[in-house]
Each structure stands twice: as structure tokens, then as C-alpha cells.
Write a structure and sequence with these properties.
Elements lengths: L22 H65 L6 H11 L9 E8 L1 E3 L2 E3 L2 E5 L16 H13 L3 E2 L17 E9 L8 H7 E10 H8 L7 E8 L6 E7 L9 E7 L2 E9 L9 H23 L3 H23 L7 E6 L5 E4 L1 H6 L14 H8 L6 E9 L5 E13 L2 E10 L1 H15 L9 H13 L6 E8 L2 H8 L1 H17 L6 E6 L2 E7 L4 H17 L1 E4 L2 E4 L2 E7 L6 H17 L5 E3 L5 H7 L1 H14 L2 E10 L9 E9 L5 E2 L1 H10 L3 H14 L13 E6 L2 H4 L3 H11 L7 E6 H6 L1 H14 L2 E7 L7 H5 L4 E4 L1 H5 L5 H16 L3 E4 L5 H9 L4 E2 L8 E2 L9
Parallel strand pairs: 22-23, 25-27, 27-28, 28-29, 29-30, 30-31, 31-32
Antiparallel strand pairs: 1-4, 1-7, 2-3, 5-6, 6-7, 8-9, 8-11, 10-11, 12-13, 12-16, 14-15, 15-16, 17-19, 17-22, 18-19, 20-21, 24-25, 24-32, 24-33, 25-26
Helix pairs in contact: 1-6, 12-13, 17-18, 19-21
Subcellular location: Membrane
InterPro entries: Biofilm_reg_signaling, CHASE_dom, CHASE_sf, EAL_dom, EAL_sf, GGDEF_dom, Nucleotide_cyclase, PAS-like_dom_sf
Organism: Thermomonas beijingensis
């Protein structure tokens, strides 16, 4: 009988031996597939472990390079500190140099690897410039560099010349230092160089710098010590570290350290540039860096699962034919899925989605989309109904894509920005949207960061002046402009912290105060740093002036209560605050002018207080009249109507220097003939730049009439002359004093120049130079009003003084205030230790005289001893 094919059924007969596949074959196949999938997953997990380990290895290398960079920058700060010593003095003595080095010893960070700090002075000889080493510290161990000529060391000289021409720190090539003796190392150290120019303006051109060079400061460092301190003793991922100098082309090994056997992976190299030299940090990973990982666990678990899968397959393969048919259908579905996967490029790194147009159903998401996006994607968040999608649908060219930026929800619930392209396509006759997106969150964050930096202060993270003014202008232009207030804050004596502890301390104080003030404001209030130590606060919705003053008082109290610590010192701070209602100003310029005037009056009233602007405020009116006072002072200078009074200082101790000591006090004769005290006109003179003229008039008048100031005439022992802050910036005043002393044959020891503590600290470097030059003439210098600001006894140590005058506020409260007694006693004791004479001001009673004498104060000055009198040569019948 012919063989017939039954086409009625496509299901194979499971009982037919020729068609049935043995169950063990299916089980083996399942096992192999499971093992294959396990190996694939384990490989992926191992690659992930390798990436993580590689990241840790490179991060550790970058950290070492950063540590080296930090060490070098600390070395630069050290040598710049010593450069400032030479800038502050025309002639630095060996004792001053040793004291400066001793002060540096308190900072251990800048002493790593330091061998010596040396100063080489330029000497011009017929064969060229020579630079013998004159000063160096420490002395022990560095005797070999005494008198060493830098010109004999080519690498050292090359760094000196580069620093001379650039006025920047320059690093020498590595070479054997003379302190190393006859050791085997050929390059065990290097030297950092900074120039020292002649006094005056810092030269700006190369030729000018070469002409102005008087010497060079060099700091020598041991390479092993400096670099060894930057490298951890037992790193986690590093097998070895090598540091090479690449500056001259051929790599030159500076330092190397081996920790463990290296892995067979490329080295990681990080470059460090400093002082004109280029270094490279090269590191290899440890051999066991990839020993730990989860891929072995994946293999073990995958093997167990594969065995279970094989057992299950064995069981299923031996069931009825229906299971076989079901398996065949599943296999066909898998094949179809794999085909679709290949067609749609499953591994595309972008997010790819197919969305039906008729019902909005998402019919496909590629692997990246499934990983990044949430399981249930809100279609409302997609721009399918927006014009961009409509443009794509209406495009005459098939597959044309329209782009836009949208926010998508990630699998963890967070939102991220994506650049999205949408195209209208058709698959198997079904209209669909093809959506392709790529994550651009980083680019948007960068844009937002740039916007933030444009509107915020980088130090305090508050709004900057530009953004603050924009917000004030917006509120002034709104209908609610009458419901608001502006606060203007200026920190009191902030410059003293910069001068005593450095600008880093000042910056940290500003940042901490910004955070403290922010806590005292409402969410709607706007706090901004306007510049320096000035802050502004915009208070919207404030109707009553009393509410604005209360807000200002909260800020004042929180600033006053804040205690700032820095390097073992603590500081208190305060602020003067001006308050003005927005309705009191017709423009933003007027608003800021009123606020600044109110803040100024708060400072004038004693600081650490609040002043509210009012149109009928007498103080504001007085402030506005300062311009008129400035004109009156100019007229008095022109008409010779300035007057001098003197007040005597009396000795309290038997060993005090004898003779009459006086202090000159300035007065002004008004147009009506009356005498005007300095408190009425000096503020205007200071504000409008008239103090240099006034100071010169006082100095010229006093020195030319020195023997006609007091009834004792030529027997007058000493005359004290006050110098204002403007004297520090008057470059010609010193020459004027020197000429007058010579012209009028005045003994310099008979003249004392007084500079207030706050003026001296306003520009410490300029004050130090002026004081040193005045004492060089033979004159004496007194520090007046000591203790008026945030005082530090370090001033007495760092300034070359002869006299310290205790601020009268402490003397006035001496009888009933134990703190004032302690301060006066401490100033006296420390002043005597420095070899200074101590003077107490504002002595108003015999009781105070007795207390001051018991405290060993040298001199007293005040109404209890002598009321000011007109100088003799200006007296007439009415004086």
C-alpha cells in the first residue's frame, strides 16, 4: 500500500520511537543552556567587578597626585609668607628672619621635607650677577649653605631667574643639595624660588623686574620626605607608585615605592604641574585587585539552578504530548522574540520606544529603556500631543524626526532630562510613534550650575549683589512695593581677622555667618552678600518699620552670639545694620543710599547696633550735611583757621622719663570765631579725603613751632602727633617729616607719632613699613586706643613700637569693672615685657590715678591731670 501523509495534524506522535527525542537529551540541553546563561551572567558580573576595581585603582592614583599638588601648594604658601617679611621691611635682620621661621614652626603642614629657608642677596660684579646666601634657617644641619653662591648651581640659578622674570614661584630641577654632603644620590632635593624686589611698586615688566631684583628667597626640600608624605603606607589597590620629572623630555625618576606584585594591566598616569615643572604619577594595580567579586557566587548559584532546570526538563519531557506541543509553541515564540530583538537593535545605547497611535499603548522598549524607565510610563509626560509631535506627523518625508527636551521618570522614581526625537512610522500596517531619547541630565546640570554661579556668591552660596539688586528692582516695580524693607549689614572690625589670622579665616567666618543668618530669616526673605563684609536682606511683605527692626535685631543678636574659632583662637563678631522701608525711596539707587547712610550712622553710634532710616531723622540729616562740613574744612585750611591744643601727660612711676610730655589736639575756628571740636568736622574730612592735607598741616606746624608749643619752650621733652589712616597711603608724608626734622633742627627723640590700633590693623603691612621708617629717623611711635577693636597682643610683638596707649573706655570703667582691670593689667605687663612705655587715657579722678600707679602704668593723661590748652604761639587775649 502506498505511503500516505496525514495532513490533518501537525502535532508529532509522542509514542513514535523515530520521532521522540529522549528526555535525557532535553535535560542535557536545558543544563547546557543554563550553564551557558550562567557563564554569560558571571562574565558580565566579573566585568563589572573589574570596572569597579579599576575605578578604585585610578581614584587612588588621582588622590596621590592631588596630595602631591597640595603639598607643593603648601610649600608655595610658606615661601610667599617669607616673601611678605621682606616686603614689609627695607632691611630684614637675622633675628627677624629667625623669629619669622620660628612662627612658621607652629604649622606642621608646611614643614614636610623642608631643609632650609634661605635668602640670597644679589651682588652685581664684573663677571655678572652673584647671589651669595646671607640668611638661612634653621641653622643646625645647614651650615654648608652659609655664603653659598646660587650662581654656582645651574639648576638653582635657572629657577631663580625664572622667578625673577615672572614674579611667580619657580621650582628647580632635582639635584643633589649641599646639605646632603657626598652621598650617593645625585638628585635628592629641589628648591622653590621667589624674588625680592626693591621697595616700592612691584615691577610689571620683565626688564623692570630684572632691574628691581635685590635678592631671592629659596626653600629647599628633600624629595623623599616631601613625596613620601603624600603617598599612603599601605594603599588598598596600588602595587607600586613611581613619580617622574618630565619637564626636560626624558623621564627622570624622583621617587618610587613598591607595595605588592602588580596585575597585568596598563599603568595609570596622572600629571602634576607646578612651578614650571611637569611631574607624572605612574601606578600599577595590585595583582589581587580583582580577587574579590560576585561572579563566583553567580557561577555556583547558576550551576545549581541549571541542575534544577535539567531535572525539571527531564520531568516535563516525560509528560504527555500536550507538554511537547506547549514547548514547541514556546520555542517558536522565543525564536520570534529573538528575531524582533535583532530587527530593533536591542543593544542601542539610546532609549527606544514604540507607541501605538490609536490607544497610546507601549508595544516595545529596548534594553536601555527597560533598565532606565519606570515599569508604568506616564504617557502624559510624553510630548505626543505637543506641536513637535504634530510636526513629525505632518512631515512629507517618511521617518523625519522632530526633537525636544522632556523629563522622564526613571525606574527608581527620580526624574531625568532627555533629548527626545519623535517620528511617525508604520509597522505591519499599524501607525506608531517611534521615540528615541538620550540622557542629557549632565548637560542641563552644567547649564544650571553656570546659571547658579552667575547669581550666587561662590564663598557664602548666597545671592550676589547683581541678583540681589535685580530682586529689589522687581519688588520696587510690583504693586506690593510699599510692603517691604531693606536691611544693610556691615560687619564690625572684620579686617582685623584677615590681618591677624589670614584671609582664609576671614572667608570661613563669612561662610559660617551666612549660614547662621539664614536660619534667622523667613523662607521668603532674600539674603545676599553685597561684597567684602557687607550683606543685604530684602524683607518682602513687611508693612511696619517695627517688624523690620525686629528682624534686624534677630540678625544682630545671632551675629553677636556667634563665636568663631580658628587655629586655637576664638573671635566674636558684631554687625552694624541700617534699616529702610521700600516706601521711603523713589528708586533703587535712593533705597541703597538711605540704607548705607543708616548703616554708617549705626557704626558711628558705636557699632553693633541698628539704625532705621527716617526722613526727619536728625542723624540722617547730619550725615547728609557732611558735604557742607567738607567745604568748611577746605575753607579753614585755605584761611589758616586750624588750631592746636595740647594736653600734658604726667608720670606715675619714679623711674619714668622726666620732663614735660604733651599730645597735640586739633581744633577749628569757625566763621563766627567760635572753636569747633574735631568730632564735628573730622568725619567729613575723612570721608571726603581731606585728612592728608590736615595731617601735613599739623606735622609742619608742630615741627616748625616745636619750641613755641608749651610754656617750657625748648625744654619740652616730647610732643605726640596723631596720624590718621590717610597717612598710610600718603607716600610723600615720610619724606616731608624727614625734611622738616632736618630743616628745623628738631631732635627726633622729642617727637612721637601716634597711630590708632584700628588704623594700624586696617593695613598691617603699610603700617609696619611706616612705623619702621619713622623709628629709623629716631622718632618714637605710639599705638593709640589699644583695645578699641578686636585686639590681639600679637600686635605688640609684631609692630616696632615705643609706646602703647590703653583705650580710654577701659580706663574710665576701671574702678567698677574687673574685666577692665584685668585688661589694663595685662596690657601693662606685656607692654613692659616688650620694652614699651604704657600710657592710660581718659583719667578723670584721683582714684583712677592711684589704681593705675599700683598697676605700674608709666604715664596718665586726662582731665584729672590737665585740661587741654591752646599752644603758646596761637594764643591771644580770648584763649
Amino acid at each position: 500500500m502506498p505511503f500516505a501523509i496525514d495532513n490533518t495534524s501537525t502535532v508529532p506522535d509522542p509514542t513514535s520511537p523515530s520521532r521522540r527525542v529522549p528526555a535525557w537529551a532535553w535535560a542535557l540541553l536545558a543544563f547546557l543552556l543554563g550553564i551557558g546563561l550562567t557563564l554569560w551572567l558571571a562574565y558580565g558580573e566579573k566585568q563589572r567587578d573589574i570596572r569597579d576595581a579599576r575605578h578604585g585603582f585610578t581614584a587612588e592614583t588621582v588622590k596621590i597626585a592631588g596630595s602631591i599638588q597640595t603639598q607643593l601648594e603648601q610649600c608655595e604658601r610658606l615661601i610667599r609668607a617669607f616673601q611678605s617679611v621682606f616686603l614689609a621691611s627695607d632691611q630684614v635682620t637675622a633675628d627677624e628672619y629667625a623669629r619669622a621661621y620660628q612662627n612658621m614652626q607652629t604649622n606642621t603642614e608646611v614643614r614636610i621635607g623642608l631643609l632650609a629657608l634661605a635668602y640670597a642677596q644679589r651682588q652685581v660684579k664684573p663677571d655678572g650677577d652673584h647671589f651669595p646666601t646671607l640668611l638661612f634657617a634653621p641653622q643646625p644641619g645647614n651650615e654648608a649653605i652659609r655664603g653659598l653662591d646660587v650662581a654656582t648651581q645651574p639648576m638653582n640659578l635657572e629657577a631663580l631667574l625664572r622667578s625673577r622674570d615672572s614674579n611667580q614661584v619657580a621650582m628647580s630641577a632635582p639635584f643633589r643639595l649641599v646639605q646632603s654632603g657626598n652621598g650617593n644620590k645625585h638628585s635628592d632635593g629641589f628648591i622653590l624660588r621667589l624674588p625680592v624686589y626693591a621697595a616700592g611698586q612691584v615691577p610689571t615688566s620683565v626688564d623692570a623686574r630684572r632691574q628691581a631684583l635685590v635678592g631671592s628667597i629659596g626653600a629647599s626640600f628633600r624629595i623623599d620626605d616631601l613625596l613620601g608624605a603624600a603617598i599612603p603606607r599601605d594603599p588598598i589597590a596600588l602595587a607600586d607608585v613611581t613619580i617622574n620629572d618630565l619637564t626636560d623630555g626624558e623621564p627622570r625618576t624622583l621617587f618610587a615605592r613598591h607595595f605588592d606584585a602588580p596585575a597585568s594591566l596598563p599603568a595609570h598616569v596622572v600629571k602634576v604641574q607646578f612651578g614650571g615643572r611637569l611631574w607624572s604619577v605612574t601606578a600599577h594595580a595590585r595583582h589581587d585587585i580583582y580577587a574579590a567579586g560576585n561572579w563566583k557566587t553567580v557561577l555556583w548559584v547558576g550551576g545549581v539552578i541549571s541542575m534544577l532546570l535539567a531535572a525539571l526538563t527531564w520531568s516535563l519531557a516525560s509528560t504527555r504530548e500536550r507538554a511537547l506541543v506547549l514547548g514547541t509553541a514556546l520555542s517558536q515564540r522565543v525564536v520570534a522574540s529573538e528575531e524582533r530583538f535583532r530587527r530593533l537593535n536591542e543593544l542601542l545605547p539610546c532609549l527606544v520606544l514604540l507607541i501605538r497611535k490609536d490607544n497610546g499603548a507601549i508595544v516595545y522598549r529596548n534594553a536601555v529603556a527597560r533598565e532606565r524607565l519606570a515599569d508604568r510610563l506616564e504617557l502624559a509626560g510624553l510630548p505626543l500631543s505637543e506641536p513637535v509631535a504634530k510636526d513629525a506627523a505632518a512631515s512629507p518625508v517618511a521617518g523625519t524626526m522632530a526633537g525636544t527636551d522632556i523629563q522622564l521618570q526613571a525606574a527608581d522614581g527620580s526624574l531625568f532630562w532627555a533629548s527626545t526625537w519623535i517620528s511617525s512610522i508604520e509597522i505591519d500596517g499599524t501607525p506608531m510613534w517611534l521615540l528615541v531619547a538620550s540622557d542629557n541630565t549632565v548637560q542641563r546640570q552644567l547649564t544650571e550650575k553656570l546659571g547658579y554661579q552667575a547669581s550666587h556668591d561662590s564663598l557664602t552660596r548666597l545671592y550676589n549683589r547683581r541678583e540681589f539688586e535685580a530682586r529689589v528692582q522687581t519688588l520696587l516695580a510690583s504693586p506690593a512695593r510699599d510692603d517691604g524693607a531693606l536691611l544693610f549689614l556691615d560687619l564690625d572690625q572684620f579686617k582685623l581677622i584677615n590681618d591677624t589670622s589670614g584671609h582664609r579665616a576671614g572667608d570661613e567666618l563669612l561662610a559660617q555667618l551666612a549660614a547662621v543668618m539664614q536660619e534667622k530669616l523667613r523662607p521668603v526673605d532674600v539674603l545676599a552678600r553685597l561684597g567684602g563684609d557687607e550683606f543685604g536682606v530684602l524683607l518682602p511683605g513687611i508693612i511696619e518699620l517695627e517688624s523690620a527692626v525686629q528682624a534686624a535685631e534677630r540678625l544682630r543678636r545671632c551675629i553677636e552670639a556667634f563665636i568663631f574659632g580658628w587655629e586655637g583662637r576664638t573671635y566674636t563678631s558684631s554687625a552694624s545694620i541700617g534699616v529702610v522701608m521700600l516706601r521711603n525711596a523713589s528708586s533703587m539707587q535712593a533705597l541703597f543710599t538711605h540704607a548705607d547712610a543708616a548703616c554708617y550712622l549705626a557704626k558711628e553710634a558705636g557699632r553693633n547696633r541698628i539704625h532705621a532710616y527716617a526722613e526727619d531723622d536728625a542723624a540722617i540729616t547730619h550725615r547728609m550735611s557732611e558735604m557742607e562740613w567738607a567745604n568748611r574744612v577746605r575753607d579753614a585750611l585755605r584761611d589758616d583757621r586750624l588750631l592746636l591744643d595740647y594736653q600734658e601727660l604726667h608720670a606715675l612711676q619714679a623711674n619714668a622719663i622726666g620732663g614735660v610730655h604733651i599730645e597735640l589736639l586739633l581744633r577749628l575756628r569757625g566763621e563766627d570765631g567760635g572753636v569747633v571740636l574735631p568730632g564735628a568736622f573730622l568725619p567729613a574730612a575723612e570721608r571726603y579725603g581731606l585728612m592728608p592735607q590736615i595731617d601735613r598741616w599739623v606735622v609742619e606746624t608742630a615741627l616748625s613751632q616745636l619750641d613755641r608749643l608749651h610754656p617750657d619752650g625748648a625744654d619740652l621733652a616730647n610732643c605726640a602727633i596723631n596720624l590718621s589712616a590717610a597717612s598710610l597711603e600718603d607716600e610723600g608724608l615720610f619724606d616731608c617729616i624727614a625734611e622738616l626734622l632736618t630743616e628745623h633742627r628738631v631732635t627726633p627723640q622729642r617727637v612721637t607719632f601716634e597711630i590708632t590700633e584700628t588704623v594700624a590693623m586696617r593695613d598691617f603691612a603699610a603700617s609696619s613699613v611706616l612705623i619702621s621708617r619713622l623709628r629709623g629717623l629716631g622718632c618714637k611711635v605710639a599705638l593709640d586706643d589699644f583695645g578699641a577693636g578686636m585686639s590681639s597682643f600679637g600686635y605688640l610683638k609684631n609692630l616696632e613700637l615705643d609706646v602703647v596707649k590703653i583705650d580710654g573706655s577701659f580706663v574710665q570703667n576701671l574702678a567698677g569693672d574687673a574685666m577692665s582691670q584685668s585688661i589694663v593689667r595685662a596690657v601693662t605687663e606685656i607692654g613692659h615685657l616688650q620694652g614699651l612705655q604704657v600710657v592710660a587715657e581718659w583719667v578723670s579722678s584721683p582714684q583712677l590715678l592711684a589704681m593705675l600707679a599700683a598697676m605700674q602704668v608709666d604715664y596718665a593723661q586726662g582731665f584729672a591731670l590737665h585740661h587741654p590748652q591752646r599752644v603758646c604761639f596761637q594764643r591771644n587775649g580770648n584763649d
